Amino acid sequence: MSAGEGIGRGHRRIIFASSLGTVFEWYDFYLYGSLSVIISRQFFAGVNDTTAFIFALLAFAAGFFVRPFGALVFGRLGDLVGRKHTFLITIVIMGSSTALVGLLPAYATIGVAAPILLVALRLLQGLALGGEYGGAAVYVAEHAPAGRRGFLTSWIQTTATLGLLLSLVVILACRMLLGEAFETWGWRIPFLLSTVLLGISVYIRLQLEESPVFVAMRREGTLSRAPLAEAFGRRENLRLVLLALFGATAGQAVIWYGGQFYALFFLEKVLQLDAQAVTIVMLVSLLVATPLFVVFGALSDRIGRKTVVLAGCALAIVTYFPTFRALTHFANPALDAAVSTAPVAVVADPAGCSFQFDPVGRKSFTSPCDVAKAALARAGVPYENEIATGGQAPQVRIGRGATAVLIDAAGDPAGVRRQLRAALEAAGYPARADPARVNFPAVIALTTWLVILVTIVYGPIAAWLVELFPARIRYSAMSLPYHIGNGWFGGFLPVTAFAIVAATGNIYAGLWYPVIVAALTVVVGVLFLPETAHRDVR
């Protein structure tokens, strides 16, 4: 049977309407992630560069933090009053919040009120998204004919990547048209464009009819009167929710955000590639790999959801470290060579080193150890931590043996930074990745592989979650594990991984987070979750 066989015009219309509206909603949500470097400068200008970037990532993560609460609020509403009306409300909240980000004054204009208001809007976006995905997935699945549910719901799965793709296209176009003005005010245009997308999305959603499964339950009087209590208060249902979280969505989430967002952060912030080049690399990878969401969704109709999703997790566990190491080799070969020939170490008493994260921006990290580590982190230079002995003053060692350069970190901070920069350049560490030496075909191939892993784990996940839960509590029950997995395990990946890297000095150490979570999902999924591909969701 071909992919489209047995799919009528009505089904295609439902898929298009649900998917297009969700694309726009993901576009709104991911604009922030795509512009996090600029936003850190615009709204968190009162702190040092490293803290500002981590704080910007936390503001991004704030939207993910509240997604499970949005799942509870709108999941309950969807099980009580219907799928259609609920995800119509969510898109209005999302579009309005995004447009307001484009109008928000920066830190230089209104001070600390700027990041506070920004975080408030991110929370609204997260609440809206918490109710959106479950509604769209349930709506499409409950219209799908038997044996085609994985294929049909996989179109919903493309929407997150297409939303990211759309945000990158708009950002790239604005960068090219506005030049340097994009950094000062042009970044607001992609946010303001959401007003147009909002109008289109609302119009599309208004054309839809209610899910036939929900209509049948309402006619027969079998709707749940307390979907939250039934979904999470009954032991058997709560157990299934927890198994879905740890055995399916947690691993899927870290691979999704690792393959798309952390890869973007890694290329731009760690490997020091030009922002426009990074955008083009990710655009090409997304364009090449996105059709595979549907391929793996359809494959799950044949061999099972569980098999496909957990195989993707296992592939990520095996290939993540080699892939990111290869990215360094091909994207910034000078950095890769310098790390091998002239490794860097910070030698200091651990008591004199701080964890350089201050969310309120009131601390000054001025100890010699902190000055040295901050300078290295800003330069994207990996380093080892060594404990000083015998009262030794903090220092940075660049290179090995008798040829190593030793820099006393206890001097004037500005002078220490100048000495470090000069010594690093002499040792071959580049200030930025040299565009002429970047192997773009290899970099694109590697980032495409990371996105392919995303398509394997994400293509079948909607069908698997819908089929796990009974119809009367489906919206509530599936939304919570999905949004805890993607909102907390996945959404906190960038800030968690970046903090691990900053603390250890190892640019690959942050990868342990997605690898360990994916391994947990493989174990729990294999042992405790059932295959559901042939269940009747009606």
Structure description:
This protein has 25 helices and four strands. With 538 residues, it is mainly alpha-helical. It has a four-stranded mixed sheet, covered by helices on one side.
Task: Looking at this protein, list some descriptive labels.
single chain, 538 residues, mainly alpha, Growth Hormone, Chain: A, Glutaredoxin, 4-stranded mixed beta sheet, 25 helices, disordered N terminus
Q: Name the CATH superfamily assignment of the largest domain.
A: MFS general substrate transporter like domains
Please provide the count of β strands: 4
First-residue to last-residue Cα separation:
23 Å
Spatial strand order of the main sheet: 2-1-3-4
Total of helices = 25
Mean pLDDT rating: 83
- CATH A-level architecture of the largest domain: Up-down Bundle
- What is the total domain count? 2
Topology (elements, then pairings):
Blueprint (H helix, E strand, L loop, with lengths): L8 H26 L1 H8 L5 H17 L1 H15 L1 H21 L3 H4 L2 H31 L5 H30 L2 H6 L1 H5 L1 H13 L5 H9 L6 H7 L1 H36 L4 H15 L2 H12 L1 H27 L1 H9 L2 E5 L19 H11 L5 E4 L7 E4 L6 E4 L4 H14 L13 H19 L2 H8 L5 H17 L2 H12 L7 H17 L10
Parallel strand pairs: 1-2
Antiparallel strand pairs: 1-3, 3-4
